[in-house]
């Protein structure tokens, strides 16, 4: 078996994230991922380079994009001999792509690779309705005039008026992500005030990070945007408190302010062996230390849809002999403020940790000053598959600036899954 090598995170590049149906409304997944990759190539001098692999994905994909990532590579300035492929693990896609690339580097199978993700809810892959699809397939198969007329006769005007629009919902429950998260918020008694405070902190911290120039070498302006469009530096607890609940019952706590907005955007990160980094005179920001995935039975059990990271993190900690407190930074994806708070509450709960995780003592609480220190998805927005790359690049740079330390990444995903990782320096 090959020796396991260290895996370096050399940096990232993303385009600013845009609110759905606004600045990037006319851009496709391919356009946006190409823009993010081109920026990475320019920043790291990768033009003409044959990388080991490029792995990326989108949660919402058009059928024409059957291998979106390969198309993006062919349209980029990388050597066309760079293999590329798509993966999809809902909101865990970007981080899972980084894990795939990292593991291949660790095993010595490749020396360097790019991981990425992209999503647009503006340019959503709307499909024709099922009856119309069947009739069109029949028409395509028809070899005689009679067969063609028979297929055409099955087409109805109302079919065209009933397209299949992708829903932000779980196929097995019919509930949206937000409706699931609202159930979890109730179960963990997460207050509206706590959610709004987390949302406000996310906006304030992201705004401060922009003002410090933190994203200057992590981002390429795109279609006139230089900052994440959702960022509201002027948000306040008073304004957040006035927003009407959007999920759950009358007394529900989740609003547009403490939920992620629908977002368009793309991100990429460059990973390599330390030897490759040295040969290319590229400094290492941080190292990929470990990763883990988990899934919960949200269909039959009483688990919250987005609670899988609560299971993945303790497994990864145990394997590495770490406690939850052994981190300088916690990057917990803010799908919804309530979701972050429910995950933290689970780790603090003696019952949950004993009964669900089989631990003698709770994992305990974290230092909230170390959580999402430069803001997260509530402020930046959440183009599903692009969030992992945003987080990996942000955390790697935070660790590089600190000079040493360890950071935890935790991303909840649709389908009851979670993807988590540790970076260190
Ligand atoms: C997918 C996975 O695998 C896992 C996951 O991550 S799950 C998460 C997936 N993501 C989602 O489900 C995102 C869902 N989000 C949405 O559908 C929509 O954003 C939403 C339904 C929550 C809100 O939609 P909306 O009502 O159109 O929001 P929007 O119009 O922007 O905001 C409503 C109001 O709140 C205000 N507002 C929003 N955020 C604010 C803030 N931080 N501060 C102050 N005001 C704010 C807006 O200004 C607006 O006010 P006005 O009506 O006065 O203009």
From TrEMBL:
One GO cellular component term: cytosol
Entry keyword set: Acyltransferase, Transferase
InterPro entries: 3-ketoacyl-CoA_Thiolase, Thiolase, Thiolase-like, Thiolase_C, Thiolase_N
Name of one Pfam family that matches: Thiolase_N
Residue stretches making up the Thiolase N-terminal domain: 7-273
Record-annotated Thiolase C-terminal domain positions: 284-425
Active site feature: 91 (acyl-thioester intermediate), 382 (proton acceptor), 412 (proton acceptor)
Keyword Signal: no
GO MF annotation terms: acyltransferase activity, transferring groups other than amino-acyl groups
Domain of life: Bacteria
Family note: Belongs to the thiolase-like superfamily. Thiolase family.
This protein's name: Acetyl-CoA C-acetyltransferase
Top-level taxonomy: Bacteria, Bacillati, Actinomycetota, Actinomycetes, Micromonosporales
């Amino acid at each position: 078996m090959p020796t396991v090598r260290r895996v370096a995170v050399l940096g990232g590049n993303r385009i600013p994230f845009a609110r759905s149906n606004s600045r990037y409304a006319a851009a496709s997944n391919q356009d946006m991922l190409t823009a993010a990759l081109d920026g990475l190539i320019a920043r790291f001098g990768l033009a003409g380079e044959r990388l080991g692999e490029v792995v990326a994905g989108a949660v919402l994909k058009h059928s024409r994009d059957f291998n979106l990532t390969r198309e993006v590579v062919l349209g980029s300035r990388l050597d066309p001999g760079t293999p590329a492929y798509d993966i999809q693990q809902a909101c865990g896609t970007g981080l899972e792509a980084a894990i795939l690339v990292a593991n291949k580097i660790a095993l010595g199978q490749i020396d360097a690779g790019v991981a990425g993700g992209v999503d647009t809810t503006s340019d959503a892959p709307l499909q024709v309705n099922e009856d119309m699809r069947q009739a069109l397939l029949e028409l395509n198969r028809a070899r005689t005039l009679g067969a063609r007329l028979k297929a055409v006769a099955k087409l109805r005007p109302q079919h065209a008026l009933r397209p299949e629009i992708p829903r932000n919902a779980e196929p097995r429950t019919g509930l949206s992500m937000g409706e699931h998260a609202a159930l979890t918020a109730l179960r963990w008694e997460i207050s509206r005030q706590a959610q709004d405070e987390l949302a406000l902190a996310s906006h304030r911290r992201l705004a401060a990070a922009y003002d410090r120039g933190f994203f200057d070498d992590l981002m390429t302006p795109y279609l006139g945007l230089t900052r994440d469009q959702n960022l509201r530096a002027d948000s306040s607890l008073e304004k957040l408190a006035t927003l009407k609940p959007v999920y759950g019952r009358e007394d529900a706590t989740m609003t547009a302010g403490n939920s992620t907005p629908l977002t368009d955007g793309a991100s990429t990160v460059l990973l390599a062996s330390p030897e490759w980094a040295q040969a290319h005179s590229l400094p290492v920001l941080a190292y990929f230390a470990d990763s883990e995935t988990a899934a919960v039975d949200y269909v039959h059990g009483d688990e919250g849809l987005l609670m899988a990271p609560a299971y993945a993190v303790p497994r990864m900690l145990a394997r590495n002999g770490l406690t939850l407190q052994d981190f300088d930074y916690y990057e917990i994806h803010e799908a919804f403020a309530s979701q972050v708070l429910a995950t933290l509450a689970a780790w603090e709960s003696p019952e949950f940790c004993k009964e669900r995780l089989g631990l003698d003592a709770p994992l305990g609480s974290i230092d909230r000053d170390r959580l999402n220190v430069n803001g997260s998805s509530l402020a930046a927005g959440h183009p599903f598959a692009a969030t992992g790359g945003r987080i990996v690049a942000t955390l790697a740079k935070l660790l590089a600036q600190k000079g040493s330390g360890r950071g935890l990444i935790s991303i909840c995903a649709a389908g009851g899954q979670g993807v988590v990782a540790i970076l260190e320096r």
